[in-house]
Amino acid sequence: MKTRSVNTRPYLDQKPGTAGLRRKVRIFQQPRYLENFLQCIFDCGGQFAGETLIAGGDGRFHNQEALQTLIRVSAGNGVGRLIVGRNGLLSTPAASHLIRQRAAAGGFLLTASHNPGGPDGDFGVKFNTASGGQAPESLTRSIYDATQSIERYLEADLAPVDLGRLGETDAAGMIVEVIDPVIDYANLMETLFDFDRIEALFAGGFSARYDAMHAVTGPYAAEILNRRLGAPADWLLNGQPLPDFGGGHPDPNPVDAADLVALINGPVPVDFAAASDGDGDRNMILGPGLVVSPGDSLAILAANARQIPGFEEGISGVARSMPTSRAIDEVARRLGVPCFETPTGWRYFCNLLDDGRIDLCGEESFGTSSNHVREKDGLWAVLFWLNLIAVRGQSVNEIVEDHWREFGRNAFNREDFFIPDAELGSQLMAELENSVPELDGRPVDGLRITAADVFAYHDPVDGSVSAQQGVRIFFDDGSRIVYRLSGTGTTGATLRIYLERRVTETDLLIRPAVELNAPLSTIARKLSRIRELTGIEQPAAVV
Ligand code: VG1
Ligand code: CO
Q1: Class (C level, CATH) for 2-180
Q2: How far is Cα 446 from Cα 477, in angstroms, rounded to an integer?
Q3: Best residue for ligand 1 mutational test, from 213, 344, 412, 498 (most atoms within 8 Å of Cβ)
Q4: Tens digits of residue pLDDT in 377-410
Q5: Is the CB of 113 under 6 A from ligand 1?
Q6: For the chain, which end, N or C, has fewer CB atoms within 10 Å of the first or last residue's CB respectively?
């Protein structure tokens, strides 16, 4: 065991309060950078000596090197057992499940999620606690503080451990246990969904595609969709995890998964298509000519939950992140269950899940999940939809349109403005926050603002408060605009503008959201003064 002094500290420039550390690969490759960050987690995260921890990642470039570092630092800190997915792979939901199943003290998830990989791409580390959920803000803040004053880290002198072979290795007194990353997760899915019905659906002329985007879900989809549910091999696209995700951007949205959207809208008849992101926690659901908006997906899953074996008894409550469309609020109202509104980021759901207040939750950024883990879960959402299609005997499009007719539609889309100068981004946001008191009652382009605020969340379970979580502006026709700055980018600032319009007129129901929200988009740009302040005219992405 060696105690080593750190050669520098300022590398650890993590933004206080973010869920993990996400940076360019080259920053992680700096000597002792990762060691220092891991040591701060060991110093702040609790007592790990003699305990079990879980580790794995999405297979991106630098994953193997980072895992060997983690093994050395874990052994140096006296960890009893480190359970690692074979070849260093574990999807985020599978890791969350393993932490809970193996009663581990926590887990390290080596991923930058949907950010691009490769030597010039991004890398990241997230720490999840014993509940399987993301470290709470209080912990990430103390880790951040530790990074500012760390003087030493602990490390065992070890040769690299072979992570390609299942079994146990003694690593300076710590057991490294290499496990199959898929089996336990696949077994969990079998307890939640009706695999027989999905298998019958697949055998009965239904046609589907699943795009793993050369990221971590490939082996999971191969086991679950192909081997257990009998899907033909060619339904799985880009199933091989690659360190650079095949040069792609492993983000399941209509822009980055444009090939899949083209495929389902193309000449070959396909009933259903879906994709997941780098670490397997996001999902996108497609029908012919239709991208299911994540807010709609969440609302539909909640409205139909009882038709799925895992939710036969119904649900106790639901939650959505603040910018997510309020479609779920309407479902909750009719079901007579509470609906919580939390800041962006999965970890805010974790207390509500642990406390049994909610069973389903989701975010507009293509993330949905339930109480079966403490992370969002891409393949889980895909299986939920397939189970629903099998039970209802309807297509994706029919299910969505039926839902809109019954509950009304919250037409939703998002515009991302990339501001290269991060400082300018913060300034714009600060000005927006300052303008809030003057907005009440103001008329804009034929609408009237009925309320505006800077969103703050009061956690009902532990009483903690998270302030400045975005600006909300409400209009007299039920529309809403939300502004916030992204916390996951590694350069500049990204202003996210979320547009939502409530639609009940039958002839408007199936119009594209971007079209329905065009007037709101104009208002949103005007109120933020983005052009005056930054010179930027157009969003970098519209999803
Ligand atoms: C984005 C999404 C947010 C999500 C986060 C992590 O954050 O908006 O909903 O929880 O990514 O997702 P931001 O701060 O850039 O808007 V993942 O798939 O990285 O775990
Ligand atoms: Co992700």
Answers
A1: alpha beta
A2: 10
A3: 344
A4: 999 999 999 999 999 999 999 999 999 999 999 9
A5: yes
A6: N
